[in-house]
């Protein structure tokens, strides 16, 4: 498989947050996706995720997927938000 970039599909502006979070609080990942790297730009996501979603409005994760055997490709903190379709492709 070619280079993969982890991208976040962010929650919509104004989504429910904890009461302590103000309106300027950082938008959190709603779903974590994997996308092929853009041609000649291994640090940027291509136009579509592995599940077929447009990456235009998504944010690149601050880390690259792990290449170590047995390690997840996504950040462990967001394991519950991993896209099941992207995860299935990454398992192949």
Strand order of the largest sheet: 3-2-1-4
Class of secondary structure makeup: mainly beta
CA radius of gyration is 14 Å
- Which stretches are poorly predicted, pLDDT < 50 over at least 5 residues? none
Helix content: under 10%
Sketch the topology as an H/E string, one letter per element: EEEEH
How would you sum up the major sheet? 4 strands, antiparallel
Strand content: 25-35%
Shape: globular
- pLDDT average, as an integer? 86
Number-wise, the strands total 4
N-to-C CA distance: 9 Å
Number of helices: 1
What layout of secondary structure does this protein have?
Blueprint: E1 4-10, E2 29-38, E3 41-45, E4 59-60, H1 84-91
Antiparallel strand pairs: 1-2, 1-4, 2-3
Walkthrough of the structure:
The protein has 92 residues and is mainly beta. It has 1 helix and 4 strands. A 4-stranded antiparallel sheet has the order 3-2-1-4. The protein is globular, with a radius of gyration of 14 Å.
Concise account of the structure shown:
This protein is 9% helix and 26% strand. The protein is mainly beta and 92 residues long.
């Amino acid at each position: 498989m070619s280079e993969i970039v982890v991208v976040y599909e962010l929650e919509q502006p104004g989504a429910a947050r904890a009461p302590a979070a103000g309106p300027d609080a950082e938008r959190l990942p709603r779903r974590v996706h994997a996308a092929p790297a853009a041609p000649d730009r291994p640090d940027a996501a291509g136009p579509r995720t592995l599940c077929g979603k447009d990456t235009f409005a998504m944010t690149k994760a601050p880390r690259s997927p792990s290449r170590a055997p047995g390690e997840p490709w996504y950040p462990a903190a967001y394991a519950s938000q991993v896209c099941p379709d992207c995860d299935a492709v990454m398992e192949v």
